[in-house]
Amino acid sequence: MAGYLCLWILSSYVIFGNGLHLEILGGRHEQVLHQKSLIRQKREWIVPPSMIWEERDNSQKNPIAKIRSDKDVERGVIITYTISGQGVTEPPYHLFVINGKTGELNITGIVDREQTPMLHLRGYALNQRGENLERPLDLRIKVLDVNDNSPVFSQTSFSGSVEELCEVGTLVLKINATDADEPNTINSKIAFRIISQEPNDLNAFVINKATGEVRTATFQLDREIHNSYSLVVEAKDCDGEERGNAQVTSLQIKILDVNDNIPKLNRTAYEGSVKENIANVEIMRLDVFDDDEQFTDNWLANFMIVSGNEGGYFRIETDSQTNQGIITLIKEINYEELRTMDLKIVVSNKAAYHKSIIHQVSQVKPISVKINVENVREGPVFKPKTLVIKTTETMKINQIIGSFQAYDEDTQKIAQRITYAKGSDIANWLIINAKTAEISLRKVLDYESPYVINGTYTATILAISTDYPPKTATGTIVIQIEDKNDHCPILVTQKTTVCTDTKYINITVEDRDRHPNGGPFTFMIIDEPERMSDKWRIGHIDGSRAQLTLQDVTPGTYKIPILIKDNQGFSCPDQQVLEVNVCDCEDGTDCRSRIISSSVFLGPAAVALMILAFLLLLLVPLLLLACGFGSGFGSGGGKGFVAIPDNSEEMLRNWNSEGAAPEDKAMLNLLTSSGSEKYVGCGTAAAGAGAGVTAAAAAAAGNSFSSTIKEQNMSS
């Protein structure tokens, strides 16, 4: 019979391995199962776990198990039993020991299930040489759980929020907690409950015992009464039984505001005043009270004028810091037209109302705000503010075209003590009478002026009061000018040059008159000289342009008379003549470029004149060099200039003295050199040489002058 090893264990389970056997110790006495009662399964044996309690001294039950080989009954066989695994060769160390001779397994320490819920061991039967006599036996020891752990919350504290007036059962938040004891046992089953609530005027919340969900227990949550709640919640294992371990945590629940309060004013009627003719001034502020949370849309007031502001004089807006309604006058009010105004104003919130107060909103009535307009001393005013004057271009200078007087708003009569002046007159066409406000013309009106837009010229007039401080009113003068057909259509270009192969010439017309006195225009060739219309014809006409076509025209210059009429059939009194120079164009050369290039050459006469002028410029320095300057100048031995006496009596002829008639005398020879006979003096020589005048000619021209000089020289 093959040997086997048995394992005794303090349990009601027994599984036999292949060679090593498990023997169960029943009660406090050993009971060895007979070999016939052993159940052999496959070669792989599965041993059910042995059980020990955590956190207890299990040594009192030693040995907790025993392994035995069936070869220990054979004679001469010495068997040594050993174990390995958790608690022996693996952490936690030194937990198990085995009797090598008997195979008894003893426990020596305390086990923590949360660290090692199952201990895995392996038993061996060795011979004297340390060899396995049997296949190793796997042994599992299960650690039984005791309730030694309390629940642990996932957070130290929890917070949530919920709207006021919400429905019962609204989820606020969910609490999470865990227990380290064995899962799915009573030791780790957690139950939640609310221990306390502040304020505790009503049971506002409930908690699900199993899930930890906190929900509302009433629909009477009111933020205006309590804006938050503090709860203390307990988590207890053992499903909340008395023996269970417990932990507590705190919950902070914020009550969120909803728009369940209608804004109210402290009065039902208001009254204020404003001066006339002013704008952009604050009239009054309306105080609003709202119990909803401040600085939220539930609290912020929204004002609206529902009646009394049809003229758009007022605006009401909200001060976001004080929640006041600010009524502002944005448009001037005339006391003479409007003396009191009654505004109807409703106030609501920026946010929509909560459904719980919808029925109250329809009962809210608008408040009344009465505005009184105060009369003030006013300045002049133009009524209407714009004066339209119809004129024509034929009106003359200084002609009165209209009058624009200002009125007194208080008396509704023509204003007194007023001075009138021009405000703007960009073309300087107008004259304003400072006393009567009569408007006359400084210049003749011109419909075609760039300052006239669509036949309209605009200027302004000022009415200035003599009060202190002075008040000014501005009126607008609109002058509508009727256009006269005072301009005729003329050719824009009156000369042009084309080649003989040109098909047509574009001619453009200009007329300063506007429609209907301007274009479109009509064109016609005047047959002068005769047969002119055979060579030139009017082709396509397009408004202000026409095409002049050529009919077998030979090179030359042609003057073509054209009759041009405007839209009214009016033409210029002078003929419009287009001068066309027709020439041959070779090799694609433009006729105009050939004419221009040929005109830039200089003829021989022009070149000769340029050379002669240049030579004359060179001759002037040579003539200056021929003149002697000072005594001893040059090599001719001349004595230089002869001093002319400064006695005026010798220099002038006395014609009114009595006595014989003066005698002609030879001219004084001022130059002693032989060359001095030809020219008179340095200055005279230079001048005479330039003009071709000799000394003899000079003597003939001034006998009295020369004789006087000679007499003076001889006397000296």
From TrEMBL:
Major subcellular site: other
KW Secreted (keyword) present: no
PROSITE patterns: CADHERIN_1 (PS00232), CADHERIN_2 (PS50268)
Signal peptide location: 1-19
Domain of life: Eukaryota
Subcellular compartments: Cell junction, Desmosome; Cell membrane
Gene Ontology biological process: homophilic cell adhesion via plasma membrane adhesion molecules
Keywords: Calcium, Cell adhesion, Cell junction, Cell membrane, Glycoprotein, Membrane, Metal-binding, Repeat, Signal, Transmembrane, Transmembrane helix
GO CC terms: desmosome; plasma membrane
Domain Cadherin: 69-153, 154-265, 266-382, 383-491, 496-601
Keyword Protein biosynthesis: no
GO function terms (MF aspect): calcium ion binding
Entry's transmembrane regions: 601-625
Protein name: Cadherin domain-containing protein
